[in-house]
Amino acid sequence: MTANGDEAPILDQAEIDALLEDAAAEGGGGLQRIVSAGLVAYERLPMLEIVFDRLVRAMSGSLRNLTSDNVDVSLEGMVSLRFGDYLGGVPQPAMLAVFKVEEWDNYGLLVVDSALIYSVVDVLLGGRRGTAAMRIEGRPYTSIERTLVERLVAVVLQDLSEAFQPVSPVRFRFERLEVNPRFAAISRASNACVLSRFRVDMEDRGGRIELLLPYATLEPVRETLLQQFMGEKLGRDSIWETHLAEELRLTDLTLDVVLDEQTMPLSSVLSLRRGDRITLDATPETPVKLRCNDVALFEGDLGRRKDRLAVRITRELREAAEA
Predict the structure, then answer these.
(1) Of 69, 137, 149, 242, which has fewest CB within 10 angstroms of its CB?
(2) Can you say whether the dihedral through the CA atoms of 152, 156, 162, 168 is positive or negative?
(3) pLDDT in tens, 18-28
């Protein structure tokens, strides 16, 4: 109904489609913003970009050693999206490597496109330089091709483990290689993930590697990934560490000199009165122990210096306890 009480005109399907196209041209409109509101932007994890930068440098050297060729690896971009949206748009043919992060008890996905598959197979089997890799579309991958791709995936996962090492000790273990995306479902379709695309160039050959990590996989190290990059120490403040170490050296401690220890019944302790004597088994030559709380630190001899009692340390007890 309009403001005057008249009936509002009913839109036909063409007008509805036109409105939807205008909303998509304007960035998806309010509906698209509501749908995307649940996604976690990867910019909120600044340390993750540093980890992937380390991965690029590590892969450049590892793939160069694997292929004995000039390899250039670059990070094309990172984006946050839902797992179902990515899995439905994986370009075919491709190989999807499922790996498990044992310390985090979750999974990730590594996708190698067909261009890189044929390039790696051609290089590892002695293909001549300057010639494009032969591609025969529409056929399944052979066991030799799958084996060579598994070698490539193992190298990438090893570099990924080393890239995460300053953040958290972790190992990415290869589990299986899939060709059909439906068999590589490692998360729910609605779960948010971070997708990183890497470009691998080997002179006139190459392709892409896509690394998909669900945010549920990164949850155990989320607090660490939230830190800002500060030098090569990845988030540690050396100035604060030095200040803390200096202040600890100035901390006052109380040392107790123990002459002797005895075990007595509770009834004997309760019956003690003023003037009673407790006979110690120690003699003037018996060594005494120096303790801090319940920790025995040193052993020494009791003596006198001028008008004060003194202890001369003769042995350190911490080394014996550790041994």
Answers:
(1) 137
(2) negative
(3) 655 655 555 44
